[in-house]
Amino acid sequence: MTIRVVLADDQPLIRAGLRMVIDGTPDVVVAGEAGTGAQAIQLTRQLRPDVVVMDIRMPGMDGIEATQTITTESPATRVIMLTTFDDNGNVYASLRAGASGFLVKDMALEDILSAVHVVAAGDALIAPSVTRRLIAEFASRPEPRPRPRELAGVTAREREVLTLAARGLSNAEVAAHLHISLGTAKAHIASLLTKLGARDRVQLVIAAYDAGLVSPLHDDR
């Protein structure tokens, strides 16, 4: 299966660099390029790509607003955000908009290509170390924290798993911490995805944060 990608960035050099790497990969193809958020939405409607690599800062409509529209209109299309961790206020907004990946622009192009494969396969690009950094970023948002979310139907054990996953532990680390098998840890994660209506592990982190299971002001490292 060929992964069809739309590149959305207002910097032609970045799009050219990504296209160069993608063109050398047999199972990924650039279906289109956009220089604005509005163009990214239009291309997604026309082309129905598997993945959109989206810059946050673009003229006119930014990447966050465009991502919200794309993930609402085209749930099968996954979005990877391109940004820097200096964009504190945009991290949480991007994930809430439905982004499945969060990358730093100065990453190696090959790593970004690898992320495209990961996200296209249905996974979220949120490594444990990145999770901890994202939770820390949530604290920088100026808005007051909303009322804690209810976790209807989630068992006590699943709450433990959700808390550990949101703190950045991998499935293997969750299993070791709770003295359960890796298969059981994976089963709990799958159950949480279903019960919470989450697309991926990124949204599980958001759910844990909203439920008050983890605090962005506390460093669990």
From TrEMBL:
HTH luxR-type domain ranges (all copies): 147-212
* Annotated signal peptide: none
Keyword annotations of the record: DNA-binding, Phosphoprotein, Transcription, Transcription regulation
Please report the stretch or stretches of sequence annotated as the Response regulatory domain: 4-120
| One Pfam family hit | Response_reg
What Gene3D superfamilies does this protein map onto? 3.40.50.2300
Q: Does the keyword Cell membrane apply?
A: no
According to the UniProt record, list the residues that bear 4-aspartylphosphate: 55
Question: Entry's InterPro entries?
Answer: CheY-like_superfamily, NreC/VraR/RcsB-like_REC, Sig_transdc_resp-reg_C-effctor, Sig_transdc_resp-reg_receiver, Tscrpt_reg_LuxR_C, WalR-like
What's the protein name? Response regulator
